[in-house]
Here is the input.
Amino acid sequence: MTATAIRPKRVLPGFSLSLGTTLLFVALVILIPVIALVLKGAEIGPARFWAIITAPRTLSALRVTVTAAFVATVFNALYRLLMAWVLTRYEFPGRRILDALMDVPFALPTAVAGISLTALYSANGWFGGPLAGLGIELVYTLGGVILAMTFTSVPFVVRAVQPVLEDLDPALEQAAMTLGARPWVIFRRVVLPAILPAWLSGSTIAFARSLGEFGAVVFIAGNLPFKTEIAALLAFIRLEEYDYQGAAAIALVLLVLALVLLAFSNWLQFRAARHLEARR
Amino acid sequence: MSIVIDNMTKSFGGTSVLRGIDLTVETGELVALLGPSGSGKTTLLKIIAGLEWPDAGSLTVHGADWLRLAAQDRRIGFVFQHYALFPHMSVRDNIAFGLTVRPRAERPGRAVIAAKVDELLHFLQIAHLGDRYPAQLSGGQRQRVALGRALAIQPTVLLLDEPFGALDAAVRRDLRAWLRNVHEETGSTTIFVTHDQEEAFELADRVVVMGDGRIEQIGNADQIHDHPASRFVAGFMGATIELPVQMHAGRAEAPGLDASRLPRRALADGPATLFLRPDDVVPVADPAGRWQVTRCTSNGALLRIDLSDGAVQIPVDLPRRAPEARGLSKGSRVILRAEAGAIFPAMTTVPGREATPGAVTAFPRKEKSL
Here is the structure.
């Protein structure tokens, strides 16, 4: 009998094989394209890179993208918090269906979303007509870009906040009540601190997603340079024009923004875990 | 601050949880609500706190109708079973919470709050833990913090839900004595819920035994132990042997039973049930006895004896050195001598609690206040 024969087995068999497969996949699908992009960007040289991203059309596209993504995220952060609240705190007919509907933007091809939104909000669409009467135009305006981004990032905040709200011990709120706290104070001092990390990190991911949203936006935005042209589309246009350096430079800016946001989101989660390590 | 509860009922989705509760708790009293799970004790506590609302009945505290007051306005200290400390706040902030959430006009100044928190931390013997977070505390320490947080608002009533339920035995014993001290020093009216008899009797001035949404009996340990007011209390207090007997001139009679040591009862002649604890029964050797020893084991101090008459099994605990124990072994025939026991008239109709006719016992079923 050798020692190896009685070595305890891991719960999951084939650890090295499965880890290897995972790493290979991550490398092929995520890391290599990102590295290729960075290398391509590095080829350009700082002066040229700076010239590309400070060109008026690039700056305008970045401004449109960041502004629209920001507005969409703020709207989603507030509105989806309410939705998560309703879904976890109340029992009503159709709650499960509503809950399932939250994931539709994940499942729906974004181009389909873009086309339906355009159809609905164009001047002769169901919503577009009445809104035009009020003097509000969404299609081919910044409003349209915001609308599309809002739609595609619905699930992030809801799905981030929902489990935390569900896990929140009702006794905490009851304790605050017995101590004399009014509902708003209870929300601000007991509920909000508990869900804040998840809420912020969900919103951050939604923001990152909106920055890169392409399919849904291009249909409704009209893509007018200096008005409704987004950064991802401009990168695409540069690519079509065989201007690989221009495309890479713009893409790199988006990549850096996304990575910064991702790091911020993880930092929030990490910070939140601090107090709760040994909870019960 | 006396608490008067009158004819209170409550049901959850068709299930009655409280079926008419009448109870008075006097100012400064320490009262235990004792009962098995599902007896309604926690619901009653939560109604007093304003976390649940009854379907009917009244709750009057020091003359004021508390059913018109929100939980926030009752000034109660509530200690939850799992403490419910705010996880993102330090111990200090947890204790200060009730003071810091007051409207600006009534809120004490920062320094006053800090001083009050310090005082409580010392009083609760957790002065060194002020800057920790709840996750960094042991169960017993969390319990103290929870109590400190409740006491900080100087509550009119202190309510505790299974205060020691989640702690291990040694900590439990320790905290029990400590809670008694806290109660005496603060002089607050205190009500706590427990399913542990020992805890209830050791700690409380009065114990309210609850079963199935009703108050079955109110009293101290001896009263409840010796004179259970109902079949339920008898069973809950460990009288697990139920013997059918015939009442005759106030005495219980049954074949193979010597109940002459029991006092006469004011019960009508007829069928009744005798409730006995395993250690209140002595088997007496008798060659013609109804009962036969089927098993006899010893733990050194006590003999655990199983008796049978062919149909009914009875467990008996007998001190090993008792004279009756001599010569007792498997197969011996015996009769039973009851040293103590409770007798209730036989149920006239089939199950359902309503079927129990009003038992005539030394202590009435419900008492307003002792």
In short: The domain at 55-276 of chain A is CATH 1.10.3720.10 (MetI-like fold). The mean pLDDT of chain A is 84.
